[in-house]
Write a structure and sequence with these properties.
Layout lengths: L3 E3 L6 E3 L12 H12 L22
Antiparallel strand pairs: 1-2
Function: Inhibits all the catalytic activities of DNA gyrase by preventing its interaction with DNA. Acts by binding directly to the C-terminal domain of GyrB, which probably disrupts DNA binding by the gyrase.
Cofactor: Zn(2+)
GO molecular function: DNA topoisomerase type II (double strand cut, ATP-hydrolyzing) inhibitor activity; zinc ion binding
Length: 61
C-alpha cells in the first residue's frame, strides 16, 4: 500500500510517489501558499536568532 501524507497547507491526502509532482503538497497552489507564508515570515524555525559578528572599519574582507 502506498504511503499517504497530509498536505501541510490544506490537509488533503497525498500519495507519496514520484508521480506526485508537488509532494508533500497536493498542488502547486498549496506549495506557493506555503512559500508565501515563509517569505512573509509567518512561519519560522524555532531557535535563538543568529549572532552576526560585528566588523570594524579596519577589517579586511
Amino acid at each position: 500500500m502506498p504511503t499517504q501524507v497530509d498536505c501541510p497547507t490544506c490537509g488533503s491526502k497525498v500519495t507519496w510517489s514520484p508521480k506526485a509532482t508537488y509532494r508533500p503538497f497536493c498542488s502547486e497552489r498549496c506549495k506557493l501558499i506555503d512559500l508565501g507564508e515563509w517569505a512573509n515570515e509567518e512561519k519560522a524555525i524555532p531557535g535563538e536568532p543568529a549572532q552576526i559578528p560585528e566588523q570594524s572599519a579596519n577589517d579586511d574582507f
